[in-house]
């Protein structure tokens, strides 16, 4: 038997020192700000020298950590407190965007400084966009001249794609809108943007981020009308923006009308009520009959779920269109409206492959229902058709068009015979 006393187990191990790189560094922008301010004071108004200094400093200073501080200094000369005022206890420089000359050429030069910096240090891209959003919210804290410079710079940056048009969301802030700051800022911004690019490019950027239908929000609710928007921006020398906004509102109104018509049809509302409602909305929105028939066609064809089988969809379409032919007839009192409808039918049948073989039957049905006249059909056939599916649809319509032409000739012969009979009876008497 072993009488030796058993030793108690002991914990052994090695204590590791925390590596310096793993220690969380305290956020202290003071030293960073002093370095940037000192460099800007040395370079002064020479923006080429500023760009070179910023490029070189990125290797020594922590741009990633202090991006907001960096952009605050470049724009306002020092760190900004909430609301847009400069922090009193921080070093500042007189060489920044807000102290520069208020002209487009100087703002373009500053835009180049920012572009070069962000191209060199790609990770600053997101931080820069966030900075612009923040600056827009601080507009009330800036002077009119500072706002003008920022507006021109923002327009140039939007034009060259350095920032997204989504930053404009900050301008819809209730306080900025209420005091007219947003609208005044937008005038300068859009002028510099359109100066760099055309209105089509501006419109494309706005559509991309869903801002194209929100421009009215630059004004308070009691002034949020197309008339007020148009007058304000036209008087400011931005008629192209006014026209764009008016067009967007018209498109929005058409979409709403189309949606409402579609819902009425899906509910099975009486045709008389639908026609009366459509006439009223057409008058209210100042729409032409050609525009209205296009909306009606789209609503009619969107109010039903179509069969996926080609052989069954034609029968379904004929039945459905027969039901709504009085509605189509009510808005095709002009030859141009009939042609517009024919083009919409052609386009629809081409874009929806199951309807390719249904085109001729749809046209014949609407001819019999007095929606389409022989004049409109012949005009479409000879010269007014679209290129989409042209050969297929013209071939489908060939026999029917021949029949129409023969019918027209028959009418002329009958009419001539009747005139001769009348003349003979006059002579005999």
Automatic annotation (TrEMBL):
GO biological process, one term: regulation of translational initiation
Region annotation Disordered: where it falls in the sequence: 1-28
Superkingdom to which the source organism belongs: Eukaryota
Keywords: Activator, Transcription, Transcription regulation, Translation regulation
This protein's GO CC annotations: cytoplasm; membrane
InterPro entries hit by this protein: ARM-type_fold, eIF5-mimic_regulator, HEAT_5MP1_2, W2_5MP1/2, W2_domain
Residues annotated as signal peptide: none
Biased composition (Polar residues): 1-15
Any one Pfam family match given in the protein's UniProt record, by short name: W2
CDD domains the record matches: W2_eIF5C_like (cd11560)
PROSITE patterns in alphabetical order: W2
Protein name: Basic leucine zipper and W2 domains 1a
């Amino acid at each position: 038997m072993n009488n030796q006393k058993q030793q108690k187990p002991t914990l052994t191990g090695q204590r590791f020192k925390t590596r310096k790189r793993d220690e969380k560094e305290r956020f202290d922008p003071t030293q960073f700000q002093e370095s940037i301010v000192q460099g800007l004071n040395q370079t002064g108004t020479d923006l080429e020298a500023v760009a070179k200094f910023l490029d070189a400093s990125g290797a020594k200073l922590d741009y990633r950590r202090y991006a907001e501080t960096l952009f605050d200094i470049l724009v306002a000369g020092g760190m900004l407190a909430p609301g847009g005022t400069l922090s009193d206890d921080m070093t500042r420089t007189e060489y920044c965007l807000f102290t520069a000359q208020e002209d487009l050429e100087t703002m373009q030069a500053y835009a180049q400084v920012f572009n070069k910096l962000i191209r060199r240090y790609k990770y600053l891209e997101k931080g820069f966009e966030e900075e612009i959003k923040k600056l827009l919210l601080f507009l009330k804290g800036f002077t009119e001249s500072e706002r003008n410079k920022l507006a021109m710079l923002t327009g140039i940056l939007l034009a060259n794609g350095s920032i997204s048009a989504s930053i404009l969301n900050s301008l819809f802030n209730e306080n900025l809108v209420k005091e007219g700051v947003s609208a005044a800022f937008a005038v300068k911004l859009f002028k510099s943007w359109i100066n760099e690019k055309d209105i089509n490019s501006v419109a494309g950027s706005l559509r991309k981020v869903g801002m194209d239908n929100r421009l009215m929000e630059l004004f308070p609710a009691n002034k949020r009308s197309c008339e007020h928007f148009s007058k304000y921006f036209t008087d400011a020398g931005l008629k192209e923006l006014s026209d764009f906004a008016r067009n967007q509102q018209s498109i929005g109104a058409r979409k709403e009308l189309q949606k409402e018509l579609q819902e009425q049809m899906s509910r099975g509302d009486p045709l008389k009520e639908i026609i009366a409602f459509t006439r009223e909305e057409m008058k209210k929105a100042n729409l032409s009959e050609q525009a209205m028939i296009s909306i009606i066609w789209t609503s009619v064809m969107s109010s039903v779920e179509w069969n996926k089988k080609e052989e069954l969809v034609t029968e379904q379409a004929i039945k459905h269109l027969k039901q709504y032919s009085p509605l189509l007839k009510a808005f095709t009192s002009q030859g141009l409206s009939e042609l517009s409808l024919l083009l919409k039918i052609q386009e629809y049948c081409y874009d929806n492959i199951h309807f390719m073989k249904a085109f001729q039957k749809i046209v014949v049905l609407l001819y019999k229902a007095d929606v389409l006249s022989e004049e409109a059909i012949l005009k479409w056939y000879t010269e007014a058709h679209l290129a989409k599916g042209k050969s297929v649809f013209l071939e489908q319509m060939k026999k029917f068009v021949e029949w129409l032409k023969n019918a027209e000739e028959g009418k002329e012969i009958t009419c001539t015979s009747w005139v001769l009979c009348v003349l003979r009876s006059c002579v005999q008497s």
